[in-house]
Amino acid sequence: MKHWPWTLLLWVTGMDIETMASRTPGAEMDAWWRFGRATVGGFCRAAFRFRTSGLENVPLRGGAVLASNHVSVLDPITVAVAVTRRGRSVRYLALAEVFEIPVIGWVVRRVGQIPVRRGAGEWRTIEDAAAAVRGGSLVGVSAEGTVGDGRAMLPVQKGTARIALAAGSPVIPVGVWGTQDRWPKTGPRFGLPLRPRLKVHFGPPIESPGDPRSRQDVRALTDRIADGIGAALSKART
After folding, report:
1. Who contacts 5 (Cβ-Cβ below 8 Å, separation ≥6)?
2. CB 116 within 8 A of CB 125
3. What residues contact 208, with CB distance under 8 A and at least 6 apart?
4. pLDDT in tens, the chain (238 residues)
5. DSSP result, the chain
6. Can you say how many angstroms the Cα of residue 71 is from the centroid of all Cα atoms in its chain?
7. What is the CA radius of gyration of the chain?
8. 3-state SS string over 21-55?
């Protein structure tokens, strides 16, 4: 049960690895992607009053890191659905254990999601994610590292900045608000309102010059990412 949100996400991002890194606007929208947009996007619109803003900040082509706040396990799904409106897909970091689940693991590998291996070292994950960004993909990161209760942002983890610095790519700060009304940190929740308000806002790109192994550069970019996500979250709450 706890892995089904990833299954829904994979319907949204269901495409060949080569297609995911395409630099042609709209080329990522193959048949599986369009089916996912219709089904999972339809689910989101049925379950929520779903709005997006700032989509012009999502590049039509080329790699970037999408760094969002994290108030629900549904956040990656809603960000991916929102990005479909730009004809793009998102590759998320996923625990390696997900890759070992029958059927789901096969699909995860097929669509090129990025495994996070416990005990393998942070730099292995950073290099894998940075390589995907350099290849032209949008890589999604829940920058706080864990689901919060929504009352205040948790500290942004330094790994997000290291990925962007290693890739030499911009960071798009993303604010998500409303998913916690249906699936907060404590688990699924049902009740009124029947269709809670949900908004995903994409903030302006944050450039990422510097060295991923420099503590000063990582700290400076992490602070800018935290500020950007905070500003995007404020707009998502409106």
Report:
1. 73, 74, 76, 77, 183
2. yes
3. 161, 164, 165, 167, 168, 169, 170, 171, 221
4. 445 554 555 444 433 333 344 445 556 666 666 666 777 778 888 889 999 999 999 999 999 999 999 999 999 889 989 998 998 988 888 777 877 888 777 766 766 678 877 665 678 889 999 999 999 999 999 999 899 988 899 999 999 999 999 999 999 999 999 999 999 999 998 888 999 999 999 999 999 999 999 999 999 999 999 999 999 999 999 9
5. -TTHHHHHHHHHT-S-HHHHT--STTTT--HHHHHHHHHHHHHHHHHSEEEEE-GGGS-SSS-EEEEE--S-TTHHHHHHHHHGGGT--EEEEEEHHHHTSTTHHHHHHHTT-EEE-TTS-HHHHHHHHHHHHHTT-EEEEETTSS---SSSPPPPPHHHHHHHHHHT--EEEEEEESGGGTS-TT-----SSSS-EEEEEEPPPB---S-TT-HHHHHHHHHHHHHHHHHHHHHHT-
6. 13
7. 16
8. CCCCCCCCCCHHHHHHHHHHHHHHHHHCEEEEECH
Assigned token pair, 177: 């608000």
